[in-house]
Amino acid sequence: xxxxxxxxxxxxxxxxxxxxxxxxxxxxxxxxxxxxxxxxxxxxxxxxxxxxxxxxxxxxxxxxxxxxxxxxxxxxxxxxxxxxxxxxxxxxxxxxxxxxx
Length: 101
Ligand SMILES: [Zn+2]
Hints:
Structural class: alpha+beta
Strand order of the largest sheet: 1-2
Helix content: 25-40%
Number of helices: 5
Radius of gyration: 14 Å
Bound molecules: zinc ion
Shape: globular
Mean pLDDT: 83
Order of helices and strands: HHHEEHH
Strand content: 5-15%
Low-confidence stretches: 88-94
Largest sheet: 2 strands, antiparallel
């Protein structure tokens, strides 16, 4: 299993290919968070921020980066929950903010 570096991931998330893919996936799933839908949740304002998530994480499966079957829509809230960004606060490994250059 090959892994890719932070820098490579940053490049990927900024690539045109990924941006186009995000749009495609959002449209495919009607701009709905998969987990909210499963919970039959009312969409709150915060939930409206939608992100495309890699089922198998990009860092572990870079070859699946643009595979439709590996992509799903999650709202920001659920996406954060999935990556546990709330529990392990900053410092340790703040995945997103660190990747800002
Ligand atoms: Zn959600």
